[in-house]
Amino acid sequence: MNRRTRRILFLILFCGLLLAGSFAWNQYRHQNTVAVAVAKGKAMYDMTALTQVRLDQQQMQAIALADAGLLAMLGGDDYDFLDAVVLGAGEAAPWQDAGCASHNCVHISLYDYTHGGTVNAILNTSNGRIVDRWANPDARPGGSEFILPKALDIAAADPGVQNLLGSLDMDPAMIPMSGWLADDACRDDWCVDLTYQDPAGSGKIVHVFVNMQQNRVARTFMTRGRAELPVAAPQPQRYAFTDGCKEDEYGWNVCWEMTASDGINFYDASFEGTPIFASAKIGQIEAWYPSWPGGYRDEIGFRASVPPFGDTQVTDLGNGFEVRQLFTEFTHWPNCICCYRYEEIMRFYDDGRFDLGFVSHGPGCDDLSVYRPFWRVDLTLNGRGGDEVWAWDTNQWVPVAAESEFFPFVDDLSPEGEKLATFDGETHYRWQMTRTDPLGLDEARVFLLQYKEGEGDGPIQTGPGDTFVPPRQWMEGDPVSGDDPVLWWVPLLKSKKSEPYWCSPDPEPGINMCETFLIARPAGELVQPSEEELAAMPTATATAVPADTPTPAPTPTPRPVQGEGAEDIILNSGCGSCHKIGALGEGHKVGPDLSGIGLVAGSRVPGLSAEEYLRQSILDPNAFIVPDCPNGPCIPNIMPRDYESRLSPAQLQLVIDYLLTLTEGTIVVETVGEGAVPAPKAIPAAKNAPATALPRSSALMVQVLLVVFVFILTLFLLFKLPGEDK
Fold first, then answer.
1. At residue 524, does pLDDT exceed 80?
2. Domain 244-536 has CATH 2.70.98.20
3. Cα separation of 454 and 278, whole Å?
């Protein structure tokens, strides 16, 4: 072997080592970035893990994965351990025969990626036995520190995320949240939203929706920004709460305890010795945003996405008492976007009345939103069994024979303004929702189900977004009268970004909160109204869903857009949350400025008139993607694709006619050829991203090219050298 050959072999070995080192460095860089992000995300989760009993999560995971029954339920499926949480006395009641009492039993959850949903177990820590197991295919749980590395790894490998954020080792804007997108697989799949401040300094929030079941990023987009307010910083987040009981207080006996993810659970309530309800709690809060379209399934509790803030407040009302708990998602209120702040309230009065209340302080992630708290009340009037349920229908009270869904709940009411009546023996209650919306747009859904053990009396796990699951999946037409009814009350609180402000943080957070109450009023024997009372009633505007109406399947429920004028329709459709439309909406958001759309609509797509183009853009927004948006190239799948089912033909025409009149300013026109499909462009890099923060794939390509260049150059020089025999 001559010297030239030896040098060539040495060169090959050297370049091979360089290339291997490059791969190793990139892998380390990637893992280190994800590790930093995981550490920051876990720090946020650790803040929500405070409870009266500390659990060794690793030990709980080991117990779960050693249980033959759980492994048999999973089979060969791909799964992850989610978490383990301690149960208080109220939530542990279904397993009291197995020795579960206050804080000695644990709820363990795993997520089944293969088939969807969770596999669950109840562990009695006193004896180390698993006393119950079940699968919940409808569960879409909140995030946890155990799935966080997987979510971040998927996000960090996505080119769009790399281009927009550079890396994910920045502080998250929110705790990773369980969310859904109505026009994407994230409608049904379990998806987690990772949120960050825009590195370009716009003040907006970057959302990275990760589909955990498909191992991919479903969507990346931004929502609004807002300048910081000149207000004092709040007190530190204390993650504090106070469990307690009232004994013979204004005639009431009731206890309450903070749960891991269902808010405060009020349990074993009785009035003057008569049982009233076994449990009342909020299983979840859905925040719905028309501009995404999608939202979150917030959980409230000591290990939830929106944890308790400060002690539970118990206030004497003079004729009763109130129990109130504040929950807030983050610590720098009110200077935050995507910051959730809720209050759960129950009031008990000396005449036997009780109220269930909810308050949202915002600000949420976008201007137009709908908050939907899911209250569950397990009635035990006069003890288990024998309860009767009646509903008001147009002009009389009628018995509710089978499980039913009522929507809307605030219209077609009795002369006293009530919708439902429940009674057992001498114990009678009428149910009425307070009207609080300043524009009178109050809405609610109420579900009446027969009580069955395991259907929400233990820990409630949230379901696919916008499907009202739970409880809708449990409606099977079973009888409710003569048994034990469970009432689910879901008020729909819609924000408004114009006078009167409502359920919206602007112009000042905390001022324009929205609240709602469901009143359970004790009453005498149910009597049908007289002809005089009926004649004095206003004409009913809607009727409830009849008791024998088949239960709809758990599919998304598009909300018809309200409004008779074009401007009202546009605002109520959520268009102003993404577009500036003349005097409507806001500029510099996710959608293009439409203030001059009347000038260019007819020349956007060859063969389509201005009216045809606008109609297509509203009903099929992915048919043509406008090149330029305020935050960079426009991205497909951002605009809702359900307006055909939400707008009437007349409303659609009003909107089109209005858009055709908009001729402000100038807009650069760009068209595509006949039959061509415009491809979506890459998301632009962050404006202030450092030059060294190349995406992982780009950095690796540069290093490979450098190694190849060195190899070719050296090889060329070697061949130019004179040959040697030794």
1. yes
2. yes
3. 14
| 189 DSSP assignment | S
Specify the length of the chain in residues: 726
Please check whether residue 684 is in contact with residue 632, taking contact to mean a CB–CB distance below 8 angstroms: yes
In terms of Cβ atoms closer than 10 Å to its own Cβ (0-12, 13-18, 19+), residue 264 is buried
**Element housing 653 (H / E):** helix 649-660
Ranking 14-18, 186-190, 277-281, 371-375 by mean pLDDT, the lowest is 14-18
The pTM score is 0.77
Cα–Cα distances in angstroms (integers) from residue 219 to residues 293, 431, 694, in the given order: 11, 42, 21
| Nearest residue to 464 via CA among 219, 190, 210, 208 | 190
Distances (CA, A) of 593 to 120, 584, 626: 49, 11, 11
Q: What is the pLDDT of residues 90-114, one digit of tens each?
A: 999 999 999 999 899 999 999 999 9
Under 8 Å CB-to-CB from 481, ≥6 apart: which residues?
387, 388, 389, 390, 399, 400, 401
- Amino acid (1-letter code) at residue 658: Y
Interval 634-662: pLDDT, tens = 767 677 777 888 888 898 999 899 989 98
The kind and range of the H/E element at 23 are: helix 3-47
**Among 121, 118, 109, 126, CA closest to 53:** 126
Taking 3-state DSSP, the helix, strand and coil percentages for the chain, each rounded to the nearest 5, stand at 20, 30, 50
Please name the residue that has the structure tokens 């804007």. Answer: 173
Lowest-confidence pick of 1-15, 487-501, 592-606: 1-15
Cα 251 from Cα 133, distance rounded (Å): 39
Give the C-alpha separation, 413 to 433, whole Å.
Answer: 10
3-state secondary structure of 297: strand
The alpha-carbon radius of gyration of the chain (Å, integer) is 29
CB-CB contact of 155 with 210 (8 Å): yes
Domain 57-136 in CATH 3.10.450? The answer is: yes
